[in-house]
Automatic annotation (TrEMBL):
The lineage of its organism: Eukaryota, Metazoa, Ecdysozoa, Arthropoda, Crustacea. This is Cytochrome c oxidase assembly protein COX19. It is found in: Cytoplasm. Belongs to the COX19 family. PROSITE patterns: CHCH. Residues 1-23 are annotated as: Disordered. It comes from Petrolisthes cinctipes (Flat porcelain crab).
Amino acid sequence: MASMTFGQKSFTPSPPQKGSFPLDHQNECKRFMLKYMLCLRENKSENSLCRDESRNYLECRMEKGLMAKEEWTKLGFSDASEPKTT
C-alpha cells in the first residue's frame, strides 16, 4: 500500500526528450499506425511505398505529444507539404 509522505516530490509530466519514442498507451494514433503497418504488409515491407501513411502516423504522434515536433526534412521527408489525411 502506497502512501504520500511530506518530503516526497510530486511528478510533473514533461514532453519526451529527443530520440525517445514513448508508447501510445491511450491508442490516440492507433488508426494511423494500423494503416501504416497494413501498407507495409501489402507492399512486402517496402517502406518507400508507404510514405504517406508513415508521415500521417508521425504527424499524429507529434500532435499528441508522443514525440518531439521536428521538421519534416529531419525525419527523412524531402518535401515540406502537409501529410495527406485519409
